[in-house]
Amino acid sequence: MEQTTSCVLFLAFVLLVFPSYGVAGPLTYSTYNVLNYGAKPDGNSDSTQAMVAAWTLACGSIKPATVYVPPGRFLLRNIVFRGQCKNNAIVFRIDGTLVAPSDYKVLGSIGNWLLYEHVNGVSVYGGILDGQGTGLWACKRSGKGCPSGATSLGFSNSKNIVIRGVKSLNSQLYHIVINGCNNVKVDGVRVSASGNSPNTDGIHVQSSSGVTILNSGIGTGDDCVSVGPGTNNLWIENVACGPGHGISIGSLGKEAEEPGVQNVTVKTVTFTGTQNGVRIKSWGRPSSGFARNILFQHAIMKDVENPIVIDQHYCPEEKNCPGLVSGVKISDVTYRDIHGTSATEVAVKFDCSPRYPCTDIKLEDVKLSYRNQPAEASCSNADGTASGFIQPSSCL
Ligand SMILES: *[C@@H]1O[C@H](CO)[C@@H](O)[C@H](O)[C@H]1NC(C)=O
Fold first, then answer.
1. SS3 assignment for 323-338
2. How far apart are the first and last CA of the chain?
3. Distance, CA 265 to ligand 1 centroid (Å)?
4. pTM to 2 decimals?
5. Which atom of ligand 1 is least distant from the CA of 233?
6. Which of 64, 131, 146, 241 has the fewest CB atoms found within 10 Å of its own CB?
7. Distance from the alpha carbon of residue 184 to the mean position of ligand 1, in angstroms
8. 321-331, pLDDT tens digit by residue?
């Protein structure tokens, strides 16, 4: 009894002297635990208001702030975490699972589930994002009047962002989208969705500069990483992809007026059973777009349908482009140390625009086989050089 009393007194003293005394000690930041604002870790109670309340306090804090989500399942409807905030150091520390509504119609037409907009200095550490997308995928496969779905985690018009150790499961649409951002680090992320889930790209980057994606594993039904117009200084390293459609620059050139893609490095990646390995893809229609200064280095292909591919004749459903040629100019693309197995005979395919041929394509040490034989290469409107060991032999 006496011990308890002195303990309580001591705690009262500490709280008096250090009002921000938290789990980690008397630090100079505030922690907002969503449980304190009414969140329930039961997977059924709607915790949206509690999350918004914690964010509003963190965003309004003049000192660095942490939003804490403890273990458990927290049901959340769509949330926009909107800046500007009063500080530039907000951490979301997530030990639990954030769960989207199981009825896909709730988010289906909203476009985003968890969206950060106009924020600076936000980090998301850990946690599982469960997008509950399977119902929408089934609807899309049966093909009748389905909503397009929501991206699970989006960052828009933001800067100085870290996404570390997050696991995204079964998004309705894209898993993670980085749009209009500057200086974003994605590290140790896991993405998992069925190999036949529609439009569930792992990480989509567009209109952004200085994005780095490291040490991540992505298995999904569409591109593992897709890179849209207006991306520059993108670095992707140590990523495992599969199932999925590979790492794709594009689709580019959908719009007539479009910014280009520049300075992309894709390094030390493994593709397992994917539809593509490293791909550049553009619509077959006029555009101001371009892709240049691209390096694909140290890639391992395991049973990949199209290990190396440039496709400038993308025209889904043959609508709005038949007979047109791509305006996207592709130049200065290097493939260095790419080896492994192709699941089809043609392992290297450069199918470029007749109006704007691909230029300065470089193959250096490429070895791809098909059924224990050298695979084949196919080129149209592609110009460049080959050096080192090259198999299949170059058609440039
Ligand atoms: C290319 O991008 C990398 C980051 O991915 C950056 O470090 C480098 O400075 C950029 N190069 C140029 C010429 O901008």
1. CCCCCCEEEEEEEEEE
2. 85
3. 9
4. 0.93
5. 2
6. 64
7. 14
8. 878 899 999 99
341 phi and psi angles, rounded to 5 deg: -120, 145
Give the pLDDT of residue 123: 98
**What pLDDT is stored for residue 366 in this prediction?**
98
List, for residues 350-392, the tens digit of each pLDDT value. 999 999 999 999 999 999 999 999 999 999 999 999 999 999 9
- Residue with token string 């604002």: 37
What is the C-alpha to C-alpha distance for residues 222 and 225, in angstroms, rounded to an integer?
Answer: 9
Closest residue (by CA) to atom 4 of ligand 1? Answer: 233
Return the residue whose CA atom lies nearest to atom 3 of ligand 1: 233
Give the mutation target among 182, 205, 232, 233 for probing the ligand 1 site: most ligand atoms within 8 A of CB: 233
Residues of the chain with CATH 2.160.20.10: 31-191, 223-396
Q: Give the largest CA-CA distance in the chain.
A: 88
Task: Write the CATH number of the domain with boundaries 31-191.
Answer: 2.160.20.10
Task: Note whether 112 and 154 are within 8 A (CB).
Answer: yes
How many CB atoms neighbour CB 365 within 10 A? 17
CATH (residue range 223-396):
2.160.20.10
- What residues in the chain have per-residue pLDDT under 50? 1-26
Query: What are the catalytic residues?
Result: 245
152 neighbors 189 (Cβ within 8 angstroms): no
**Residue 137 and residue 110: Cα distance in Å, rounded?**
16
How many C-beta atoms surround the C-beta of residue 307 within 10 A?
33
Rounded-to-integer distance, Cα 148 and Cα 212, Å:
28
